[in-house]
Design a protein that fits this description.
Blueprint lengths: L3 H4 L8 E5 L2 H4 L12 H6 L21 H11 L3 E5 L2 H4 L9 H16 L3 E7 L5 H5 L7 H17 L5 E6 L1 H9 L11 H24 L5 E7 L3 E3 L4 H24 L4 H7 L10 H5 L5 E5 L4 E3 L24 H13 L4 E6 L17 H19 L4 E7 L18 E4 L4 E4 L1 H23 L1
Parallel strand pairs: 1-2, 1-10, 2-3, 3-4, 4-5, 5-7, 6-8, 7-9, 9-10
Antiparallel strand pairs: 11-12
The chain binds beta-D-fucopyranose.
Beta-D-fucopyranose (FCB) binds next to loops.
Length: 453
Amino acid sequence: MTSDQDLHLQFPPAFEWGVATSAFQIEGASTEDGKGESIWDRFCRQPGVIADASNGDVACDHYHRLDSDLDLIQALGVDLYRFSVSWPRVQPLGSGAWNEVGLGFYERLVDGLLARGLRPHLTLNHWDLPQALQERGGWATREVVDRFTDYALGIQQRLGDRLAAITTHNEPWVVAMLGHEQGIFAPGLRDRKVALQVAHHLLVSHGMALKALRGAGASARLGIVLNLAPAYPATDSEADRARARLDDAKGRRWYTDPLFLGRYPQEAWNDFGGDVPQMREGDMDLIRQPLDYLGVNYYTRHMASAQGPWDTRRSGLPLTEMGWEIYARGLTDLLLTLHHDYTLPDVYITENGGAFPDALGPDGAIHDADRTDYLRTHIAAVADAMRAGVPMAGYMVWSLMDNFEWASGYAKRFGIVHVDYETQQRRLKDSARWYRSLLEQVRGRRARAVGER
Ligand code: FCB
């Protein structure tokens, strides 16, 4: 096993390190300064959908604590910060008028990062679609493709010259399937045909926005972020192996094949039957725009069984508080599979981390050794993939701080910084101290590399 002493040595000095958040999960100020309603504001109001009956009204109050939060990010010693823009904060109805105060907030955020020597990685869609667009059918309608492209161009016009990276969508699979098939995320629909149409519109709008951004002379690097898990058969049986191939086609390749090959995987297309999306001529070419980077969010592996859903408690592996198996090797396997299947651009791990109990010690500190272990082993897994030739460019921890974990509410804590929701006090957990010291070693090595020149 890799010791801490060696871990940083496995990455080239140019490899980038960061922390990630998203607007709805941290900002709060859900009705302030002209912000419009989002589908998540609306969804949280439905009884029974959020585990602790909470919402994003206050969250981490980041909207009012921007400067001190930026200082916090800088103090960790990272190179970049991944955040998202709340579309209804900058364009309350998702079309037409822009909200100057909302745009001003993100301008202060971006300028504040640059002033602190941090690279801004902006995500356009981390799920909080303007409710006004949902009233017209949301992602299920073709209209949303044009609206999203206009929104992307508006952000480019205002902030584009100062951004290091623009991600179109965060995890289209989650928006489509958890939001429109399983109904456990906003907007809470349960219809697989709609869900697959949504996934198609997300992909088309990604391609359309990329094309438009390039046409507008964007200097930021452009990409998309996918949640991916390698699929393993639960047993060696032919039935389980076939299921693993099919699950992989429906969950991973349904997104990566269109992006890199310009087609949907045939076996998944057949399996979806009458639920496959309607397409227009030229859609697949639009989706397959050259990417400057692919963002990969990795949390756990996927176990495929012909018998039905896999109960993670059967695996014998340690689980996080989400009930997800801790399996770092899966990240290496996943990256190698992607490298095998496609010609990859730069790859960033745009999210990786875990929810753990985080007991406050009698000394007032949070000794989250389980999270530190998680991060250490997964970072080592990235190094393994890189050694095998995968073009890895950076790694980002999910998350900078504890925040609103969607349907789980505030009960699940993913931060390397602890948030006391009563006082909004931020406290570094041991994992944050560990990450900071890793990055100190990285910086020391960079300084030496420059000195040796
Ligand atoms: C991902 C989301 C992110 C966070 C983590 C735990 O699916 O992109 O916002 O909630 O899961």
